[in-house]
Amino acid sequence: MDNSLTLRAGTFGGFALSVIPNLTSADVVKTIVLAFIGAVVSFGVTLLLKQLTSKKK
Description:
Layout: H1 2-19, H2 25-53
């Protein structure tokens, strides 16, 4: 089991060290903006569907 943990840690470390230098601040900002837009759209669609499917009293 220790071998598996060491393998996972080494794999993650290698992945992180190869990805992190290639990230730019523009990529991070773009990701944050797109995540925010996605969350707002998802929330809006949820409210719209809830309103459309609710029974009127």
